Amino acid sequence: PLELHVDLLPGVDGLVPQRDEGVVRPDHPKRHGHHEDEQDEGFHCGASEFGEGGSLERRKTVRSPVRAQRLEAAGKGCQDRRASGREPVGARLIADLIGASGIDRVVAVDLHTAALEGFFPVPLEHLSAVPLLAETARPWVPENAVIVAPDLGAVKLAERYASLLHRPVAVVHKIRISGEEVSVRGIVGEVRGRAPVIVDDMISTGGTIDAAIKALLAAGCAPEITVAASHALLVGPAIRRLHALPVRRFVATDSVAVPPGLPLETAGLGPLLADAIERLNGNRSLGELIAHA
Question: Which of 87, 134, 149, 284 could lock onto 164 through a cystine, CB 3.0 to 4.6 A?
Answer without folding.
Answer: 134
